[in-house]
Structures are given as C-alpha cells and as structure tokens.
Predict the structure.
Amino acid sequence: MEEQREEKQPESFPAEDESAAAASEECTTADTNLNEPSKAGKFFNKVLDTVKSIAPGLLLCAVIAVPAWFLGKLVPVIGSAIFAIVFGMIIAFFKRPKWLEGGIKFTSKKILQTSIVFLGFGMNFITVLEVGGNSLLIILSTITTSLVMAFLMAKILKLPSNTATLVGVGSSICGGSAIAATAPVIRAKDSEVATSISVIFLFNVIAAFTFPAIGQALGMSDTGFGMWAGTAINDTSSVVAAGQSWESMTGSDVALQYATIVKLTRTLAIIPITLALAIFQLVKAKKSAKNGGGEEGFTFSFVKVFPWFVIFFLVAAVVNTWLFPVLHIGGNVSSFLSDVGKFMITLAMAAIGLNTNVVKLVKSGWKPILSGLVCWITIALVSIGVQLALGMW
C-alpha cells in the first residue's frame, strides 16, 4: 500500500528539452556572431595590419630621402636620386631588423611605379606615342643584343642556363621586374634569382652614377640622353634616377621625360619574352612527358606578368593632355604632381640603395658579374650606334 501511495515522479518531455537546448545553442551562436568582426571590420583590420607592416620601412626610406632631396637641390650636379642611393647603400652595410623589410620592398616597387604614374601628369600623350614609336628600333636592337650576348657568355663561361637567361632578360628589358616575371616561367631557383638581381642592381647603381657624366662628355642633347638612358640602362629605377640627375645638371626635364617614356615602352617587352619562354617550356614539358620524364606542367599568368602601371602612366598623360585643359586647370597642377613623382623617385632610390648588398654580390662569383657587364656595355654601345645611324643626335 505504501508503494502505491508513493507519488509518481513527473515524466520528462524530450521535445521540450530539445527546444530548450536549441534555444540555448541559438543564444550561444548569436553571442559568438556578435563577438566576430563584420566584413567591414575584417577589411579594416587587414588594412591596419598592412599599414603596420609597411610603415616602419617606408619611414626609414623617408628619413633617407628628405635630406637627399635637399642635398640634390644644393648640389644639382649629383642630384637627389644619387644621394639617396648612396645613403641607402651605406646603411645596408649594417644589420637591420626584419620588420623593416616589408616597407623597403613596398617602396622600391610600388612607390617607384606610382612615381612613374605621377610623372605622366607632366607629359603630353601625343609626345608619349611619338617618342615610344621612335624608340622601337633601338629597343628591339638592344633587347636582341642582350639576349644573344647572354647566350654566348653562358657558353663561354659555362654559366647555368637559368642564370644566363635571367641576366640577359634583366639587362635587356627592365631589371628586377623582368627577372621576377621570368623566373617562375623557366623554373629558376631562388639562388639563381638572387644572383641575377644582385648583378642587375650593381650595374643599375653604376649607370645612375656614370651615365649623366658620360652623356655630357659625349655632348648629348636632352632627347639623345633620354633615348640612351631609356634603352641602355637595365632597371626602371636607375633610368629615372639618371634622368633626374641629368635634370639637376642641365635644368631641363626633357631627358627625364624621354627616358621614362622609352623605358616604359621597353618594359612592355616583358609580355612577348615571357610568353615565348612559356611556350618553349610547355613544348619542353610535353616532350619530356612523352619520353617518360614525368615533368610536371606549369601555369603562365598574363595578369601577373603585365606591367599595369604603364597603363596608369598613359591614363595620367591623357588626363594632362585633354582633361586638365577642359577643366581649365593650369600648368601649376601638372608641375606639382610631376614634382610629387620626382620626390617619390628619391624615396624609391633610398629603398634601392638599402636593397643593394655588395657583399652578397661578391660572394655570388665573378662569372655572372662578367656576363652582366658584357651585356650592359654592348647594349650601351648598340643604343648609341643605332641613334647615330638614324641621325637622332
């Protein structure tokens, strides 16, 4: 009887328990979502992280560039670009923390490309097309000369084919940018890329120092020097540095404008050269696979190879030629934007100097250096020879 008197325990209702659990889970998820940053927040955080990684190195370049800029005004025979390179090279001898590298790399690449876009605001688009067209024969001659000499030096010095190719392409087209675009296509090793870039940097610095003095000794005109610098100097950075030094010496920026236009026309050669190398590698890979070599294929990205800053330079020239006059914007705006570009060149030169490791270059051996020297000298001579043959002086 007592057992019968025991009160029955209330039965549990699974449905209600599941609902409560679900509600609890929804609350937890909602709390988690509230704690997670929104898309805008994530974008802001990413931008902030990028700025933090770039700012220290960029600031170091600015610390070098500002005094170099004023010294260039005081000693125009040397110019701010040369001062910036020298200061950067001196500082490069000392060990620096890794957190500076991001900003230095950004300055040597992106700031340099942006500076060229700003220079476009001081140029006439029709002149750009005329100068670019007039330089095509010289550009083709120097590119062919460099690639042939690189091939011959590889045979004579028994250089690795990838190193010889990178030195030849870097010397003939646009230095480090051409090497960076070509390296993945020919599957070059990091050591081969580093050696080639070091060789190109060496002759970039020498060219920036010597070309203006040689040009004046040869009695070159502003346009003649601009054409020579644009076709015979390896890297875009050194082309604009030499052009800026010539401007400091002569007081005319015609050579800088010519050199920039010719160099950007020459830069476009990255596309057919890398495309040809990609086709060659593709044929080689298919042949190897057919013979049982099992070589893996590779991808060729036109978007990555194309020098997009050249397009923005042309847009800036179009704006200066037709839009500014329509808006009744005077030459002061064009002059200001062009001066901004020239200061940015000085910033980039500081970064180039910081990236020039003479010790590492010497350790890479004399054969790549000799190959680069031969390519550089023959390009310079061919450029002068073609100009003389065409009566451009």
About this structure: The first helix runs from residue 2 to 5. The chain has a mean pLDDT of 82. The chain has 19 helices and no strands. The radius of gyration is 29 Å.
